[in-house]
Amino acid sequence: MRLGYTLIETLLVIALAGIISVIAYFGINSNREGQKLANAEKELVSNLRSAQNKALSGSNTGREYTFLMDVPGKKYTISTLGSSVSYNWPEGITMTNPGAICFFNPNIGTNPTPRCNGTPAFNFGAEKVITITGIAGIRTVRVAGSGYFVTRIYAL
Question: Measuring CA to CA, how many Å separate 53 from each of 21, 42, 76?
Answer without folding.
Answer: 47, 16, 18
